[in-house]
Specification:
Layout: H1 22-36, H2 54-85, H3 87-120
Length: about 120
């Protein structure tokens, strides 16, 4: 196994009081679009056009990321609850499929019996 050593970034990389860059602003806009699609209880309630520093941007990004993770976790929990309750739906669907199959089989048998009767009759001359 190969281990790749990643050097620590210099302290100058993150300055909470430095104005945000265009790249950081675009990332915040993408996160804001994702945040708008979440239910309102997961919104950060931060006006992104008021964010001017890297520290404010970091706080916003953290809140939105936590909201997205929480929304997904809550949705997974809700799906698991519904899966336990919804077990009967699958059984009902299986019964409906069985009934349709029985109808099809009985219709096929009736059709084959008619063919046998008609082929067994002698033609009058």
């Amino acid at each position: 196994m190969t281990v790749i050593k990643v050097p620590k970034p210099p302290r100058s990389v993150y300055d909470p009081s430095r104005p945000i860059s265009a790249l950081l602003k675009m990332q915040m806009e993408h996160l804001h679009d994702a945040e708008k699609r979440l239910p309102t209880r997961y919104h950060s309630e931060i006006y992104i056009n008021a964010i001017k520093t890297e520290g404010e941007a970091a706080k916003y990004i953290q809140l939105v990321t936590e909201g997205i993770h929480q929304a997904h976790a809550d949705a997974a929990t809700e799906r698991a609850k519904r899966a336990k309750k919804g077990k009967g739906v699958i059984e009902i669907a299986a019964v409906a499929d069985e009934r349709a199959e029985q109808k099809f089989n009985s219709a096929a048998r009736a059709s084959s019996q008619k063919k046998k009767k008609s082929s067994g009759k002698k033609k009058k001359r």
